[in-house]
Amino acid sequence: MSSPESTTVQVVVDAPRHAGLAALDYRCDRSIEPGALVRVPLGRREVAGIVWQAAQRPHTPAELRAVVQRFEMLSPLPPQWMALVEFAAGYYQRSIGEVALAALPSELRRLSAAQLAARVRRSQRAPHALAAPASAAATLTAQQSAALAAIDDAASQPRAPLLLHGVTGSGKTEVYLRASEHALARGRQVLLLVPEINLTPQLLARVVERFPSRSVVAMHSALTPAQRLQAWLRAHAGSADIVLGTRLAVFASLPRLGLIVVDEEHDASYKQQEGARYSARDLAVYRGHLERVPVVLGSATPSLETWQHARSGRYQRLPLDERIGGAVLPRVRLFDMGSLPRAPGQPPPALAPAVLDALRERTARGEQALVFLNRRGYAPVLHCPDCGWKSECPHCSAWRVFHKFDRTLRCHHCGASESVPRACPSCGNLDIQPIGRGTEKLAEQLAAALPVARIARLDADATRSRGALERTLAAVHDGEVDILVGTQMVTKGHDFRRISLVVAVNPDSALFSSDFRAAERQFALLMQAAGRAGRDAAHAGSEMWVQTWHPQHALFAALRAHDYALFAQRLLAEREAAGLPPFAHLALLRAEARDAAAAMKFLRRAAELGAALPEASGVAVYPPVPMAVARVANVERLQMLAESASRLRLQRFLAAWLPQLHALRGEVKGLARWAVDVDPLAI
Ligand code: ADP
Ligand code: ZN
Ligand code: ZN
Known about the structure:
Largest sheet: 7 strands, parallel
CATH superfamily of the largest domain: P-loop containing nucleotide triphosphate hydrolases
Shape: globular
Number of strands: 28
CATH architecture of the largest domain: 3-Layer(aba) Sandwich
CATH class of the largest domain: Alpha Beta
Bound molecules: adenosine-5'-diphosphate, zinc ion
C-alpha cells in the first residue's frame, strides 16, 4: 500500500548511532527542503529533528508515521552547515542527529511553533545601532599589512589556512579587526572564536567599539537559553555581522560567512570533553575549506599540530615579530630553588628573597606584578604529623584540597566537600597541618611579607560569585591592585598595561609529567604569562622571574630567549622519534565502571575485536591502563589507546570498530559508560 499524494523525508533526531534511530523516514503531505526543522513522533514521544534528505522513495508506505510539525518561520539550515555537521559526526564517531541537535540552541527544540515564531519576529527587530563613528584604526606595521594582504588574498581565492604567529602585544587582534572590516565590506559575516569568553570581555568591547553600526552577537555557554536563541537566530538569519563565541559557536549557522578567526588557537578549551569530543579549532579549519573562506589561527604559542603544518607548508605562517610601540618582552630570570640555604626538615619558602625584593621594588614604584601558581585552594592536602593521616577523598584516587576561607576540604575531581575536621579523624591529634601551597596560601604569605601591597587573587574559587571576575579585572586595570595572584586564569589574554613583573612559582611538575603534552602546555602558559608584562613601552625593564628546581631544563632556555620556535623544534623532534602527534594520530577508548574489572573486561574484549578487523592493519591498539586519576566519584576509569601513522587508516578502523563496541557494551555487566575520544588532548 502506498499513498500517492504524500512524500517521504529522512529526518535526523538526537539519538546515538547504534540505536538505529539516527535517520528515520517520515511521511509528509508535501516535500520539505533539507535543513528544515521539524517535530516528529519517536516511540511515544515527539522530538525535534532536522530534515536531512527529501523524497528518497518513489512511493510512501502507508505505515510510515507523519511529520507532526514543521517550523516554517525558520529558514532551512544551509547546506554547508549540514556538510560541517556530517563531517564532524563522521570524524568524531557520533550520529549526525546527535551532533546536529547538540549544535542548536536548546530553545529551538523546546519551543512550540507559535513561541518560536514570536522569537524569530523579535530577533528581526533591528538591534540598537550606535550612531557613533567607528574608532579610528591605527596605521598598520609592515608585518601587519603583509598579514592582512595574505588574508584578503585568501578571501579572493581559496588558500591554505593562515597561522598568525605573533608574540603577545604584536598586534594580532588589530589584524583580526582589519580583516573583519574587509569581510564586512564584502557583505560577509565574521566568525571570531575565543577560548573562554568570560576572560575576554575586552575583545567584545573592542569589536563593538570598532564596529558600532554593526550587529555583534556573543555565543557562549554563560548565556541564558533565551539569549542564546536570540544570538543564534540573528546569525542564522544573516542579520548578525560578527559572531564572537566559544567553541560551540563553530557550529553557528552563518549564511554569509566570509572569515573565520580562531584566537589563541593552541588553547585546550577548544576541545569539547563531552558527547561528540570535537576540536573547534580543527572544525574551523575544515569549515573554512568547505565554505572557501579564509581561516586565521592566531597565537604566540601555536599548538605543535599547527606549527608542524606551518613548517610543512600546509598552513601559511604570517609572522608578527615585534611588539607594538617599541614595548619589549620582559627579561626572564631563573631562580634556582636548590641554591636556597635551608634548615633540615624545614620546607623551602614560598618565594625566594630575591623575588620578594623584586616585588617590593616594583610595587613601591607604582608598577604592578602578577604572581602565577597553577594550583588553587590553600593547600593541596592536609596531614597529621602524628599518625600520617592525609585528607584523601573517600570517592576518588585524589587528595581533598584544603580551602581556608570557608574551612572546607574539597575534592577537585568529584566536588565532594566537607568542613575541615577539628582534629585528626584517625588519632584525634589537634594539630593537623597543610602540606604544600595553593594560590590562597600564597596570597596570604605575600600579604604577610609585603604588608603595604594591595593583593588580589584570581582563580576558580575567587571568581565563583557573579561579577567577581569583572570586579577583580577592573580593579587591576584601575590600578587598585599591586599584586595579582592567580592560576593560569591570570595568564590568558588580558591586556594589563601596568604590569612590569611576572613571577612563576615552581612550574616544575609539568616537566616530568606522564602526559606527553604537559611540557608543550607549560611552555605556552609561561610564554603567555611572560606576555602579561611590559605591554606598555613606558615600563621599560620589565622582568619575569621563574622559581624552579630545574633551571637547566631546555624549556627555560627557550623561555629566556622568548624563542617559541626553538622549543617547538625540540619537542617536535622528540614527538617524531616517539611516534606521537603530530606525527601519529590517536584515539582513546575510555571505559568507566564501579568495578575496575568490568571496565577492564570491556577494553580487553574491545581490543580483541579490533585486532580481528581487516581495518586494523597499520593501527596499533595498546593495552588498557587506569587513567591518571583512576577513581572519580567511586567510578573506576580506564583507557586504551589506538594509534596510527595515518589519519585515514585510523578513521577507517574506528568506523569499523565502533559498531562492535556498541554491541559489546550490552555483553559486559556492570559497565557504566564508555566513549571514544578522537585526537584526545590529555592522555
Ligand atoms: P595582540 O592581539 O597580538 O596581543 P593587539 O592587537 O592587542 O596585540 O595590540 C596590542 C596593542 O597595540 C593594542 O593596544 C592595540 O590597539 C595596539 N596596536 C595594534 N596595532 C597597532 C598599530 N599598527 N599601531 C599602533 N597601535 C597598534
Ligand atoms: Zn592522626
Ligand atoms: Zn572526590
